[in-house]
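General statements about sequence and structure are easier to judge against a single worked case. No coordinates are needed to read the tokens, only the vocabulary itself. The sequence in question and its structure tokens are set out directly beneath this paragraph.
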Amino acid sequence: MNANFIFVHGTGVRQPAYRITLKKIRKHLKKEDKSFPVYECYWGDECGSKLNEGGKSIPTFDTNRSVGGYLSDKDYKIALWHLLYQNPFFELEILSLREPENNYPPPSQELPGKGLDESIRNFTPPQELLDKLAEAGIKEEIFQQARDRIIEDTNYQKAINQAQQSTMGDYRQAIAKALVAQSAILVSETYGAQALCLMGDSRDQIVTEIVSAIGGSERGVVDWVKNLVQEKLPKLLDSAVVTTTNGILQIPTGWALRKRGSLSQSIAATAGDVIMYQSRGQKIRDFIREKITSIQGHPVILIAHSLGGIAAVDLLLEPDPPKVDLLVTIGSQAPLLYEWNALTNMKYQTGARLPDNFPKWLNIYDERDFLSYIGSGIFPGKVEDIKVSNGQPFPASHGAYWNNPNVWSAIFERIPK
């Protein structure tokens, strides 16, 4: 059994990352005493996006700001809200680490947090607050849903059980922020991220009004959470630097200002490749075509990851496609782009089919890789979808296919004979 493999990488890949992945692929394409040849198709340097003027279009590109140490109050607040929009209970979880005071009431007495709990459960926003919420895109029913989710969570109940009279202000603040953060999440989930129009100042006003309505904030309350996490927050942001909400990229702003130069270079090699491909993708397709036609002998198996899969499908839909015997797309968005009517060489039409000369297509995906899609429902009879599990959360799941034995088993079983 002979086969020639070509590896086409995806968006944002540059050296030495391509060489490292290629080495992994070559290692796995050894079966018993046979080693299948794997040809390079590294288009990143020649065809990929880059900052051609060295970042002149980017504000603060050359600013060297310290990343370590304490954040400014403004950066701290923005960074904290970034984490709250991912986990509304972040502050409440930190408060749970607080050691209880010696004057904690005996079991026979009512917990100090009981009154706070009743205030939250019975809280009806006044009209002025409802108007502020509506202006921010948060409907009354969304706010009430957020409150229900908060009070049903074990983190909330733990906070109520731990709250003491001397620290009640911290708990009111944390619960009010959790309510606003959960409301923002629900708006994005229900109506899309663009439906939320919540400015930082109005957000803070809403929090203040909620705190006032549920008992007020005692004067002189120490921001215990801030004192605890201020120095550690940059590390927390490093672990949460890029998230997505309904497809919208989120980056903690204070962190990004400090790293805007390197971050922009990274984006230029990731999102930049996607944008560049949509406007000037022919150069990449021509590059792949040249690599395919340079190989002597068949069968030819094209392994294409992510954006490489889109380029490969578009290439094989051109009027005079190169000869490929098996197309393997891994973590690819090609089926989605067709459904969006965004493939370059095939307009979406209900019931449309791939051309007869299109090669057999194996599409490998991981449900936890949110950049992978399935094609058998879009192109019935032409695409075989294989689901694997890389055991990683997103986005690590998108690059974790290469050491998954199920990936290689699926490919070996389908090598043309």
Notes: Strands lie at 4-8, 30-31, 34-35, 38-41, 243-245, 248-250, 300-305, 326-330, 360-365, 383-387. The first strand starts at residue 4 and ends at 8. Residues 176 and 208 are 8 Å apart (CA to CA).
